Amino acid sequence: MSEPKSRREVFLKLGLGAGVAALGAQAVASLRSLVPNVSYDSPTTVKIGMPNDFPDGMKFLPDERLFVFREGKTLHAVSAVCTHLGCTVRAEALSAPETKDVSGKPLRLTHRFLCPCHGSKYAGDGTNVSGPAPKPLAWYHLSLSPDDGQVVVDLARAVERDFRFTLA
Amino acid sequence: MSVKPDKAGSQPHGAPGVHTKPLWSVRPASDREAGDAVVSNFLLHWFPAKTYKPSLDWNYSFWLGTASAALLLLVTVSGLPLLFLYVPSVERAYGSVKDIEYVTTFGFWIRAVHRLSAHLMVAVVFLHMVRVFLTGAYKNGRGQGQKREQNWVLGVGLLLLTLLLSFTGYLLPWDQLAYWAITVGTNIASSIPFVGSAIRELLLGGRAIDQATLIRFYVLHVIALPAAIGVIFLYHMWRVRKDGGLARADRATLLPEKAAEAPSKTKTYTLLGVARGTSPAVKASTLERADTTVNSVPDLTRRILIVVLAIFALVSIASVFYHAPLEEPANALVTPNPAKAPWYFLWLQEIVTDTTVKIGSFTINGAFLGGVLLPGALVFLLTLWPWLDKSAPGSAGVWFPKDRRTQNAVFLAFVAGVLVLTFIGTFCRGPYWHLYWPWQAWPELPTRI
């Protein structure tokens, strides 16, 4: 057994502890208020236009930061957000389009993508070719809106690169 | 009840600790008066009464610390009118900065002073650190109870705060530079495994760059960071004083001791302002040698005034001719090509460009390696360096001492690396971050897609 503590000593420690605990709790409460409970994000499923709005080839949608490609009856969408640090890549038309097997399906490549921030380069299917980009550009799911027949992109739903959306 | 002196002037110096003159004299008539100036004046109280003469040499310290402090003062003062004019709202920030630049009388000048002094501060604080490293001034010399390594750590903190203040500052105009700097900066944070996205969300105040983001960076820029830099700066100055002045002053102890003398009254005053008891540092006997020290008032104060005035004049005049740039309004739809950070971050932009590594099928994003790990390691090493430096105490406060040759060379190699990367980023990077010679024209590219 240790020596019995004087009452004064016990109260002093109790007081100090209560003070520290109170200050700590108030600090935590103040700082917690800085962590947002609600995020007013823009919706991830977006109507991006009637199928006829998409010509053969590529269309860039700046608001969604998305490239939509059309080849006859099929569409696919490639993200324009660089996988390195999130700048918007720019598309550069190839002088001669080429057809490549991508994930087992042939794909006609008409463009390549270049990032203005740190010089990453991507092939037309989104594969990172050079520069600091660590992974390929994302592909997003496309569908048709049942109410007005617009094309809908789901920016929260990345898909494999054999994904094609075929118009009826 | 107060005791009145019999007659005014009968006690010219009053009791110890009582100073009859409200202001200090620029030309003190005696050591006593010079010491009084320091002890009785709030602004001067952190100076010693006597200063070791070689510490004042222009070519020892280049007065870079004083210049940094002068720039901090200037950037703070020029920020005050801007506080009244700038509106921290995503709709109005850009317009308010444009108004400051083109509508407010002298607004362009105030903004230019603020920006120029901020840029100069980054450069001068960096050079101050280089000077302190090269002269081993973070080393404890011969004094007792010195803790110079603590002051070095504070200094590293001040350098980081200077950079953070610059970063948060150039976000406020909410132009293209701001928007894409936040995009890149917060994505670097989110590249940290596990906690990254939470940190990004905390910095942005949500998941998208919006009003919550601007107000966060605004509060950091005008309150949190200035308060931090102010407090640490004051502590930094106080430590210089507690450690016995500049490292060079330690060399006073190498001088032959002053011949023993009958203790004189002035001694109290020449050492006043020094904490009692465990007080510094340098032996008083040599510091009191008349040929090695001068009165801080006016020899030190005059030089400080010269440095501060020179900085003020330089920035103030240059700001008449220099116009702080303002890019296009923030546009989430278009990334500028090339998207360049300000010059002092371009070495980092170079590093995050070059550090994505592939190990087999595993890829480490350059954002994490070059944006977090590498700068983090540099800062860590820099902070710890005083404890890793095993050179003799005698090489503190000397330029290029022999036994610090290797570490000085390595340090200079790092400095040169940063400078070369900054140069490449500034002059050799063009559209799509391709390399161009500085004299080479960039190809014509559409500015918008």
Helix-strand blueprint:
The complex is a heterodimer of chains A (168) and B (449).
Chain A: H1 7-32, E1 45-49, E2 57-61, E3 66-71, E4 74-79, E5 90-102, E6 105-114, E7 121-122, E8 128-130, E9 139-144, E10 151-159, E11 165-166
Chain B: H1 31-40, E1 50-52, H2 58-61, H3 64-85, H4 93-102, H5 107-134, H6 148-171, H7 176-190, H8 196-204, H9 211-242, H10 266-270, H11 284-287, E2 293-295, H12 296-321, H13 346-354, E3 357-359, E4 362-364, H14 366-388, H15 405-428
Helix pairs in contact in B: 3-5, 3-12, 4-5, 5-6, 5-12, 6-9, 6-14, 7-8, 13-14, 13-15
3D structure, described in words:
The complex is a heterodimer of chains A (168) and B (449). Chain A has one helix at residues 7-32; strands at residues 45-49, 57-61, 66-71, 74-79, 90-102, 105-114, 121-122, 128-130, 139-144, 151-159, 165-166. With 168 residues, chain A is of the alpha+beta class. Chain A has one domain: Rieske Iron-sulfur Protein, CATH 2.102.10.10. In chain A, the strands form two sheets. In chain A, strands 1, 2, 3, 4, 9, 10 and 11 form a seven-stranded antiparallel beta sheet that branches. Chain A has a four-stranded antiparallel beta sheet with strand order 5-6-7-8, with no helix packed on it. In chain A, strand 3 and strand 4 form a beta hairpin. Chain B has a domain at 45-255 and 266-335: Cytochrome Bc1 Complex, Chain C, CATH 1.20.810. In chain B, 55% of the residues lie in helices and 3% in strands. Chain B is an all-alpha fold.
